[in-house]
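Marked as duplicate of an earlier ticket. Keeping the data here for the record.
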Amino acid sequence: MYGIVYHDDYEKYDLGSDHPLVGDKPKKTIEYFKEKGLMKDLKIFNAKKANEKDLLRVHGEFYIKKVKDLSKKGGFLSFDTPAPIGIYNIALIPTGGTILAGDILFKDFTCMANPLAGFHHASTNTSSGFCFFNDVAIVIEYLREKYTLERFLIIDLDVHHFNGTQDIYYEDPSVLGISFHQDGRTLYPGTGYIEQIGRYSGEGYTVNLPLPPGTGNESYLNAFNELIPPLTKQFDPEIIIYESGVDTHHTDPLANLHLTHQIYYQFGKKIMKLSNNTCKKLLILFGGGYNNISSIYSYYNIMCGVMGKKDFIEEKEIKDDNVEMVKKLVTELKNILSLHWNL
């Protein structure tokens, strides 16, 4: 069974008319899914607010207080993340939505999605990148406690590195975090280097593939096929969390990769297959995407791939000039990980 969480107040997660993150994308995504008939096979659930206990599973008291204080008067959480008045209570809704989606997965659902989610730049006591609370980590800690899970796989394909999530789990072997992202030397947040593979008992459980600007479908799919299926099989997760940011699309205004709509269908199809072959529990957090139209089409393709639909949106392929460069990066990463995984 497939489901999706949503709340009418998702559109209030809006950082301003002159900011890349505007609030109408989740609503328009659901409307498009309805228009295309996808919602007939997706059960919709109303997101509920997270509470402070949920936040404290990951974030420090001082940090939570800082967000609350900013929420009363407005201000900036960081250089790129304005904190509008009321944002604390608004941010609790998508965070709670992710918790609810994770919980429902363990009640006879095989896949749940949240269209406002994947706030992977939030660390324990700091944040930026339009994020307030790290719902990825919060749902992991919720599920760890409630269902005594021991192995969590994060596949983060957002164009920006999952720096907050990495910080939280860098020494934790129960969480295998894989991030494909544009090279941090060319894009925010400036992290996610190939040598960053975890520390102490967590060594080998952080996997970073920094991709050069201009990387296209061929390079990306080759890298995906070489790395993600064998890592998934060997780790044998009890849940897969797919951070499906589509700011890798060639029209996204904040980044420089050259993916096209059809590749997102492949991602959905391939990651659902990985889930079916392991845990049969897939949580999709839609993540970033700052061209509304291309993002909604790409989210649609992901869900069509996941749900085994034949319909998906296509566009003209873009020549990929980075194929050989990315092959070398993949080989280098395999060598770095060779003490930990058979790749």
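See parent ticket for discussion. The chain has one domain: 2-337.
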